[in-house]
Design brief:
By secondary structure, this protein is an alpha+beta fold. Helices cover 24% and strands 25% of the residues. It has eight helices and 17 strands.
């Protein structure tokens, strides 16, 4: 059949919708010729249009177009999935990777990212001190802000054994491995200058900035005491783990209750528990009053068992007393018993426990004598056949002292036994 517009031959059978040569609309009955030539064969149409089986190259292009469409749809779907996932994604930040960094910079980076840092030091002599060898959680992973990141840091510093060394030996050992240190002195009965404690145990690896504190033994030193108030001086002595002993001395020119002399001298090294004697200024009356009270306590406020009276009196005796260097029993017998009518008392009354209830002193500074009126409570519970648990009596005791307030003599007419009446 020919095209009714351009006259070109179009073949037989079913015709295409339009002429492939001029584009005339062949579907219009007015423009087309009916009959046996009005229908072009499908094969001819396919050949003319390039779509059907008559053109295989067109078919390949069609497949490529389909494949491209599938790829585009897949890509769009993937983008859509990632978009949806992004809307519900975690807000957790990413842990910085700090392996190989110096610990100071690594710590700053992790803290700046919102994480805590726990440093663990490990000995590694092949690495520089302070280099991060590992971390947990690892770098690049998500972790909530505030998570503790544990970093392992290299060190070539290991604590040596220093306890028992001298301070000089310990310091040398620490410098050798580059460990900074400080020294703290502590009063001890160990040899002075010996390291008695270290803040880090031997064998422990230390970080680049880690240090150690050494505790070094020292002997107590006698502090400067002269001119201090007695209470302040005692406090300083006891702070050095020493024992204070106060001795009153009559010194009208010095402020009362202040230290006018000390023994040992300032700066002397002693063992813990050693005695330091201070002499404290007082008046003549004050000296005699204190000395008299001390003697009365030693004789009348005591359980005299095991020569306790003689032991208590011994340090109170004047060097001019003939029994100053005697044994306690001899002091008790000669200073106390011979000061009264002891021969007239039964033996069982010679050693009764007693307590001093009251005392009134009359001081004579010129003659250095003190007369005391005292009330004594006697304990009879250990006396066989006693009719009462105890008794109380009042007596007069006369004491004489030297110029240092030490006892020269004691007189008690009844001696250290209670007043009593015996039947014939």
């Amino acid at each position: 059949m020919d095209c009714p517009k351009c006259g070109r031959y179009l073949g037989e059978g079913m015709l295409p919708a339009r002429c492939p040569h001029c584009g005339a609309n062949l579907a219009n009955p007015t423009d087309a010729i009916r009959g046996s030539k009005a229908t072009a064969s499908r094969r001819n149409v396919e050949g003319l249009t390039g779509i059907g089986k008559g053109n295989t190259s067109g078919r390949r292009r069609h497949y490529l177009q389909v494949l491209l469409a599938v790829v585009l749809v897949g890509a769009f779907g993937a983008l859509f999935w990632f978009a949806l996932r992004g809307f519900g994604a975690s807000d957790a930040p990413i842990v910085p990777d700090v392996v190989g960094w110096r610990v100071e910079r690594a710590t700053e980076e992790l803290v700046g990212a919102g994480y805590g840092v726990v440093v663990e030091v490990t000995y590694d002599e092949t690495q520089m001190d302070g280099i991060v060898l590992g971390q947990e959680p690892a770098g690049g992973v998500e972790a909530k802000a505030g998570t503790q990141v544990r970093v392992t840091v290299a060190t070539s510093k290991v604590m040596p054994t220093v306890v028992g060394l001298t301070q000089e030996e310990a310091e040398s050992a620490l410098r050798e491995v580059g460990i900074p240190f400080s020294v703290h002195e502590e009063i001890s009965d160990r040899d002075e200058g010996i390291v008695i404690e270290a803040s880090v145990q031997p064998g422990v690896a230390l970080g680049a900035s880690d240090g150690v504190e050494l505790t070094v033994a020292r002997k107590p030193r006698v502090p400067q005491l002269v001119g201090l108030a007695e209470s302040d001086a005692i406090a300083r002595i006891e702070a050095q783990q020493l024992v204070a002993e106060s001795v009153l001395v009559a010194d009208p020119d010095a402020p009362q209750a202040t230290v006018v002399a000390q023994d040992p001298a300032e700066g002397e090294a002693l063992s813990p528990g050693s005695k330091v004697t201070i002499k404290v200024a007082t008046t003549e009356e004050g000296l005699l009053e204190s000395a008299a009270n001390a003697v009365l306590q030693a004789v009348y406020d005591i359980d005299p068992a095991n020569d306790a009276v003689g032991s208590a009196l011994k340090p109170l005796l004047s060097s001019d007393n003939p029994y100053a260097d005697a044994e306690p029993h001899e002091i008790w017998w000669n200073v106390v018993k011979r000061g009264g009518r002891f021969d007239e008392q039964p033996d069982e009354l010679q050693s009764l426990p007693r307590s001093l209830e009251k005392s009134e002193l009359k001081i004579d500074p010129e003659n250095r004598t003190v007369t005391a009126t005292i009330t004594v409570d006697w304990d009879w519970t250990g006396l066989p056949g006693a009719s009462a648990a105890g008794s109380e009596d009042t007596r007069t005791v006369t004491m004489k002292f030297d110029d240092e307030g030490k006892l020269l003599s004691l007189t008690d007419d009844q001696t250290d036994v209670p007043f009593f009446t015996t039947s014939s």
